[in-house]
Amino acid sequence: MDYYTKKGHAKRWVTQSDQNYFITGMRSLRAKCRLDLYLRANQMSEAMSKRENFFNVDALEQGIARQLVEGMTTRVFSGQQAMISIVRIEPNKSGRTHSHPQEQWGFCFRGSGVRMQGGEEVEVSSGDFWRTPGNVEHSFTAGPDGAVIYDVFAPPRKEYEKPGAGFQ
To answer: Which 8-state DSSP code applies to residue 97?
Structure first.
């Protein structure tokens, strides 16, 4: 629905995010796009610069605390699209076999253990990582020195977004 002003510039209504913008000519459209990109970049840099988005693996006061089983605790850090769970497992302790719909990536940061996944047992040590598709049964047993595992879930597990106990 274009119409023209006395000077011959096209004017049109553009709907974006439930707001109407009145745009005059292509110069205004380009300027508006540059302004939108600038504002979005500033919002992102402001969000990224806040200290609440920076963490340390050894800062046990950070994150959401969960006791998974005796001898196995985690600190959970949830985002919009993914979640990190830093699991600390005492020597020779095991989690119970379970599954969930989320895809899970695990990384053995410290220590060693045995990862049971889909009926197969695989020995892992510092530096090893693995992928667990959704709905595949899995568990972990720490080695003689225990283990620290980084788990990444996508999408986030809703039950892990609050303090509590257990895998569910």
So the answer is: P
Output the pTM of the full model: 0.69
What are the residue boundaries of the structural domains of the chain, listed by start? 3-52, 64-165
Angstrom distance (rounded) from CA 77 to CA 57:
11
Q: Where are the alpha helices (DSSP H) in the chain?
A: 25-49
User: For 48-65, what is each residue's pLDDT tens digit?
Assistant: 566 788 999 888 899 999
Q: How far apart are CA 131 and CA 168, in angstroms?
A: 20
Query: What is the Cβ-side half-sphere exposure of residue 163, based on CA atoms within 13 angstroms?
Result: 5
DSSP 82: -
Q: Which CATH architecture has domain 64-165?
A: Sandwich (2.60)
